[in-house]
Design a protein that fits this description.
The longest helix has 28 residues. The chain has one domain. α4 runs antiparallel to α12, α6 packs across α11 and α6 packs antiparallel against α12. Helix content is 68%, strand content 1%. The chain is built from 19 helices and two strands. The protein has a two-stranded antiparallel sheet with strand order 1-2. With 431 residues, it is mainly α.
Length: 431
């Protein structure tokens, strides 16, 4: 009887729609399988092992989101926080990737605790809208810089920030072609535009003998080089404590914003604006962060690309579970992923940067006391090549403007606490 009910036309139609939505979401976000190993590999981590960790973390996170919250939202290592992990905490602050994984693990545990005791709502309430927009836009600009740096178009130069001496190298031209392909394919709503562009540019690299073909299917690489290799940082290390808070806050606000955006499109938010299973969704995300750090990858987050699956008809957690299945299936395609060169993946960074930074326009609808800190945050992040420095300057400028304009209604002890941390961070940074 149950089998007959399940096989009814209505249920089969629903199952088919959710499966198509899951495949759509996977293809749209699958570029992370190529990009994440390249970014984290720059820290000395084994790229093959990072690929496996990426697949497993994305599969687990997406499955938990589907099973616990019943939402059509997929998770994978965050495209902003992997950059922060590799180029700031490891690259600039000179911490080992093992210590940085420990910071990711701690931020995941804190995120889980905050979900249980309801601190999340409090944090979202006191963080100014302008700083939320400024942080995400600034990270977008930062991603673009990383993409351009990978193409050798920017870097250290005695006179110039941009160096166009490499502009006509075939790798740069292929990257520009890849970026053009992404925009054209997205313009015509082609499913998996970013992934298709990466494959085409990699194929051209093989054709021009820039890339060696090493096969498509093989047994997954070993996870051993990075599995359970995290090390816990010194609790009195204030710089690393601030870095851990950056992991925490970016994960918190980015995921909340993504959840609201995708669920609004799916019409799964009540009329009074409440999200019924938000604690379960955030718990799924925090658990994925914790397990991801144990596996050996950077912070996990909800992907805005899930909106493509919603557009394809996904409305339940089955969509996310289908995404989870495809990430597990991807484990057998490590040779194909390892062939992808930086000039094929850099266009993905630049395009995602464009999507993140275009929200900057919303700052210009706010009053001056909000506009200025938001702009300072957005531009200080790429100009200082430091997310933490940009965020601290944003908090400090916001506090100064509140005092100068005597806007007492904008003062809260939460803002005061973060401003104090920002002040401490700058003292440590420049002394």
């Amino acid at each position: 009887m149950m089998l007959k009910t399940f096989l009814s036309k209505k249920n089969i139609s629903h199952l088919k729609r959710e499966c198509i939505a899951g495949l759509t979401t996977f293809l749209t976000m699958s570029y992370i399988l190529a990009v994440n190993p390249l970014i984290l590999g720059s820290t000395g981590m084994d790229k093959g092992a990072v690929f496996v960790a990426t697949c497993l973390a994305a599969a687990l996170g997406s499955f938990l989101m589907g099973a616990l919250a019943n939402y059509p939202i997929a998770l994978a290592p965050s495209m902003s926080l992997n950059i922060y992990f590799a180029y700031i905490v490891v690259g600039q602050l000179a911490y080992s990737w093992q210590i940085t994984l420990g910071a990711v693990f701690i931020s995941g545990c804190l995120f889980a605790m905050m979900t249980f005791i309801g601190v999340r709502q409090w944090l979202i309430h006191f963080l100014p809208f302008s700083l939320k927009i400024g942080i995400m836009s600034g990270i977008g600009f930062f991603l673009a810089l990383i993409g351009l740096k990978n193409l050798n178009l920017i870097g250290l130069h005695p006179h110039l920030f941009f160096d166009f001496s490499h502009f006509f190298q075939i790798e740069v031209l292929l990257a520009l072609l890849g970026l053009f392909l992404i925009f054209i394919l997205e313009r015509y709503h082609v499913i998996g535009a970013i992934f298709i562009s990466i494959l085409i540019i990699t194929g051209l690299g093989i054709l021009f003998h820039l890339v060696s073909f090493s096969g498509i299917i093989a047994a997954p690489p070993s996870l051993k080089p990075i599995f359970l290799k995290l090390q816990f940082p010194d609790i009195f290390d204030l710089k690393l404590m601030f870095a851990t808070l950056i992991f925490l806050f970016v994960t918190l606000f980015d995921n909340t914003g993504t959840l609201i955006a995708v669920l609004s499109q799916a019409k799964l938010i009540s009329e009074n604006g409440k999200i019924k299973k938000l604690p379960q969704a955030l718990f799924a995300d925090s658990l994925a962060n914790i397990v991801g750090a144990l596996l050996g990858t950077s912070s996990t987050g909800s992907y805005i690309e899930s909106a493509t699956g919603v557009r394809a008809g996904g409305r339940t957690g089955l969509t996310a579970i289908v995404v989870s299945f495809f990430f597990l299936l991807s484990l057998g395609f490590a040779p194909l992923i390892n062939m992808i060169p930086p000039y094929a993946s850099s266009p993905a960074l630049i395009y995602v940067a464009f999507l993140m930074s275009k929200n900057l326009k919303y700052l210009f609808t706010t009053e001056l006391i909000e506009l200025i800190p938001g702009l300072i945050t957005a531009f200080a992040i790429p100009l200082s090549f430091s997310i933490a420095t940009g965020v601290t300057l944003g908090f400090l400028s916001h506090a100064v403007l509140i005092v100068l304009t005597n806007r007492r209604e904008k003062i809260s002890w939460g803002i005061g606490f973060l401003t104090f941390l920002s002040f401490l961070y700058l003292i440590l940074q420049f002394t």
